[in-house]
From TrEMBL:
<keyword id="KW-0560">Oxidoreductase</keyword>
<dbReference type="Pfam" id="PF03358">
    <property type="entry name" value="FMN_red"/>
</dbReference>
<dbReference type="GO" id="GO:0003955">
    <property type="term" value="F:NAD(P)H dehydrogenase (quinone) activity"/>
</dbReference>
<dbReference type="InterPro" id="IPR005025">
    <property type="entry name" value="FMN_Rdtase-like_dom"/>
</dbReference>
<dbReference type="InterPro" id="IPR029039">
    <property type="entry name" value="Flavoprotein-like_sf"/>
</dbReference>
<dbReference type="InterPro" id="IPR008254">
    <property type="entry name" value="Flavodoxin/NO_synth"/>
</dbReference>
<comment type="similarity">
    <text>Belongs to the WrbA family.</text>
</comment>
<feature type="domain" description="Flavodoxin-like">
    <location>
        <begin position="6"/>
        <end position="189"/>
    </location>
</feature>
<dbReference type="GO" id="GO:0010181">
    <property type="term" value="F:FMN binding"/>
</dbReference>
<dbReference type="InterPro" id="IPR010089">
    <property type="entry name" value="Flavoprotein_WrbA-like"/>
</dbReference>
<dbReference type="GO" id="GO:0016020">
    <property type="term" value="C:membrane"/>
</dbReference>
<protein>
    <submittedName>
        <fullName>NAD(P)H:quinone oxidoreductase</fullName>
        <ecNumber>1.6.5.2</ecNumber>
    </submittedName>
</protein>
Length: 203
């Protein structure tokens, strides 16, 4: 069987979600997937970015990450979206990208992908679940197969979020536990996508 194609598509202003996305990419690769780690394009004004030195620094530090295209979504058997929480919802840079998938939706080619999501907030109760559930709405509309991490691995009892890997930036950079959770989430997504791919090939 051909390996699973896993697209890890994220937005990150100051690097936290980028770090989670890299851990997820490692997890997906270790699980045997072909991986595309992609950032979505920036929407913020130069004035907004300049007001936060960490934002500009992250843009420079992540210059080598390719920008996501709709082709990456079309290619993927499994899609993991990563986004900071913005007022309890996904960042507009990611939702703009998602709206570009309308063309795939019209063609009927966005359905049946295995989908999952991860996020970072400023604070522990700043809306991680609401952001992840909002991305779940997208997956429902696509006819996606939503694969949350649940409490299906010991690391999930340490990190504590069954909806998707989540990080509170006020605690510093993502911890080892959070990175292991991102790694695990991606592995679980790839394993389930592989089982589906195998079943479909045999059907
Ligand atoms: C416009 C804006 C809105 C935000 N809204 C929230 C929020 O609702 N809850 C929260 O905890 N943090 C909020 N934050 C903080 C970000 O979620 C936090 O900085 C995040 O970890 C950044 O991830 P990044 O480093 O990948 O950009 C907000 C930040 C911005 C710029």
């Amino acid at each position: 069987m051909e390996p699973v194609n896993a697209a890890i598509i994220y937005y990150s202003a100051t690097g936290n979600v980028h770090t989670l996305a890299k851990a997820a990419a490692e997890g997906a690769e270790k699980a045997g997937a072909n991986v595309r780690l992609r950032k979505v394009g920036e929407l913020a004004s130069a004035e907004t970015i300049d007001a936060n030195p960490a934002w500009g620094k992250h843009i420079a530090d992540s210059a080598d990450v390719a920008e996501a295209s709709i082709d990456d979504l079309a290619w993927a058997d499994a899609v993991l979206f990563g986004t900071p929480t913005r007022f309890g919802t996904p960042a507009s840079a990611l939702t703009r990208f998602i709206e570009g998938a309308g063309v795939l939706w019209r063609q009927g080619s966005i359905a049946d992908k295995v989908c999952s999501a991860f996020t970072a907030t400023g604070t522990a109760h700043g809306g991680q679940e609401s952001t992840l559930l909002a991305l779940g709405h997208v997956f429902y509309h696509w006819g996606g197969i939503i694969v949350p991490p649940g409490y299906t691995d010991p690391v999930q009892f340490e990190t504590g979020n069954p909806y998707g890997t989540s990080h509170a930036a006020s605690s510093g950079p993502p911890s080892d536990v959070t990175l292991r959770a991102a790694h695990y989430q991606a592995r679980r997504v790839v394993d389930i996508a592989a089982a589906l791919k195998l079943g479909r090939a045999a059907a």
